[in-house]
Amino acid sequence: MTWPEDTIRPTAAPTSRKAPNLAIGYLLNVLLPGAGFTYIGLVGWHVGWVGILLALNLTGALLVGLTTFPVFGVLPLVGFVIMLVHFGQAYARRAAQQFRPDLEAGVKIGLIAGHAVLNVAVVGLLAAVLMPSLLGARERASAAGERAAAMSAYTMVIAAQSGGTLRDGPCPLENVVGGDRIASCTVTGAATTDPQVTVTFTNGKTVQLP
Known about the structure:
Blueprint: H1 22-31, H2 35-39, H3 43-67, H4 75-96, H5 105-162, E1 169-170, E2 182-188, E3 196-201, E4 206-209
Antiparallel strand pairs: 1-2, 2-3, 3-4
Helix pairs in contact: 1-4, 3-4, 3-5
């Protein structure tokens, strides 16, 4: 004899979801910053960190190019460290939720692969367009500073000549603006009405005035 309840199939227990590997998440963030967040189902933070790190890279490069202070170059590194710390905290929160809801594996792979392609494109753009522009701006700023230092040294030479104290040899550099850029400065023809000044900068460039 068969009872009605005997025909009811027991409901299958929900399969346990395999947790994403923490080490793989960190590795993805190192290779493709932000990709580890998609790996644990947080696409929004993936996109957010891509934007944050890109902005920090551009800002750091721009400030280094305009100010010649290399300290601004650490901005991307600081952002990268903060991202890794944030990822560890986000992973712990997702683990407490058993990583639910989550994305399909194919969606994750597609997004991470798309990031890889975009990363190559951005690096190519920086190498081909932006970096030469930034380096050019830095060189122009450096050249302007060198011209100002050379003119300041020449002005001091003319002032010393007017005071009757100018001699052939090293330039008087006590009050020269930008003197820290100058490696050496030499005066020739001090007894003439048009003394020659040769300025050599710390980067090896040489300027002769007038």
